[in-house]
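Friendly challenge for the regulars: who can give me the structure tokens for this chain first? No prize, just bragging rights.
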Amino acid sequence: MEPALSPSAAEVVVLNTCTVTAAADQDARAAIRRVHRENPGCQIVVTGCYAQRAPQEIASLPGVTQVIGNSHKHQLASFVPLSNLRTENRELRTEIHISDIFAHTELLAAPVFDAANARTRPNLKVQDGCDNRCSFCVIPYVRGQSRSLPLPEILREVQTLVDAGYREVVISGINLGRWGRDLTEPVQSGRPRPPVFEDLIRAILDETSLEKLRISSVEPMDWSDELIGLVAESPRIAKHAHVPLQSGSDRILRQMHRKYRPWHYREKIERIRAAMPTAAIGADVMAGFPGETAADFDETRRLIEDLPFTYLHVFTYSSRPGTPAAALPKQVPVERARERNRILRELAARKKQAFLKSFVGKAIDAITLHEFDGTTTEALTDNYLKLGLKGRHEPNCWLRASIERVEGDTLIGTVQANSIR
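First reply, four minutes later:
Bragging rights claimed.
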């Protein structure tokens, strides 16, 4: 099989779904219906978290020929039909491939090299699943227990990407900071113990020639002093910390079953900022959790106001079937939750603008991406800011840029002479 130019020209369309919110489910259903309407003869294969959670619901949608849960996603290529496509325009019986996700104790990852060809910053998943049980979250039930990709395999994948010409690699996971806790291979130096996340970071730095490593979301209590020091001290690690918050109210955090208190969180963020004065610091925040009062929300708003965030991902609480939070009393009216979401997004936008403007007149490192709009080339700074570089520049190049101004949420600058590498 070969990639089609568009879904309307495809014989098979594979949709990877999310189920973290009701809106994600709705978007997935709309996408399935749109593909079927535009290309009624194609076979639609649906996989991912929504497929794992509600396979019969998806199978009932017109045009869906296969539902493949996360439990079988690593076998997807063997399930997708490779012959007899578009034959006789007949109705096909929907096949469902789902099993107990908690039976999976190893992380089976698809080869990252093939999935990353069209990108300048490939994403390597090194961990999946979650052993936490946040009361609002459905993810553990569709992703299973925490599982780590073994260290030798990670190092091989990273070096393969480097050898293919990639300059930055993002490592990610559902609960990334828990990487290694499930592995049996002991660390060789010191007393035997399972590897921890800091061991992974050191190994990538020591045993591969990767130019830039970017770490995706890590839970607050996994930002150890050791990890903060590693990120701060190595020029090969992007200065970027994404630290989920969810709420600034101690009462709500306890209802959420989160494992930290607001004062713990504040201390972590302040340590990160002290170690990395120009780092991007982001967070996930939820508005409208059941029982959230005006006072609870104000505690969240004031904590965000106080801390040096440079961006936020703000979500309105969405009740998920089977989660403890769905059964809690005092569900917040949706309009009130959306208004709180708006207030936090506006606060985040102000903080981001202040951060962007702090770089005007300064120089900053960035990697060029693909897009050239006729005036500027898109780039991403080491500290996770969008940058428009004047003129056309080749993708996948690290360079030093002089920042001239801010336009919207983008820095505008020029490439310093002899800085492209």
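Residues 7-99 form one domain. The chain has three domains: 7-99, 103-357, 363-415. Your move, everyone else.
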